[in-house]
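Take a record.
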Amino acid sequence: MAPSASNNAALLLMKQLKGARAAGTDCLSMSPDFFRRLHAHFLRRVCVCAPVFACFSRCLFIFAELKRSPVEGFSAGLRDDTDPFIWEVMIMGPSDTPYAGGMFEAELKFPHDYPNLPPTLHFTTEFWHPNVFEDGKVCISILHAPGEDQYGYENASERWLHIHTVESILISVISMISSPNDESPANIDAAKQLRDDPEAFRKKVARIVRRSIEG
């Protein structure tokens, strides 16, 4: 993208975000200095092209909309206010589950070709669940790359589609937490414990919940 086109895109983004502020969105500082830093930082960090800048703008607006109309059980913030591709998310354990009362930190990371490809979600605090890898990565169909599953476990319609939203992702995460799938687990040990010794599973989760609250 030529510098003049890039500047025009930045000015358009500034205008749109100021409109979001006027509509009551308070998630981002709307000062001129903020926009200058945001734009300069973005130009330094990535090779600017129209699709990437479009994704940059999209992520900002998705974040603003989520702050204005939050999803129950979640809160979100930008890890760095000049990088809307990486969000810090707090997930509250759903009631009537072993995770109730827990406050679990996670990172939601958007690729530069979002929404053609899904974001990734990693718990950054301990989380014991059949559908969460040991490194914290969440394994649910909606976050799997679009197309047919080479192993035949999922239909293409169950995987990522560009029409999915952050809200649909977060709702799917709540569903995953509430109803673990131990038939094709990401964490085999957690799935085995849930099947073979559910009481031990609940006790281990209860300890993790306490630690999440104590920090």
Q: What stands out?
A: The longest helix spans residues 3-22. The helical segments are 3-22, 32-45, 50-68, 166-178, 188-196, 198-214. Strands lie at 74-80, 83-92, 103-109, 120-123.
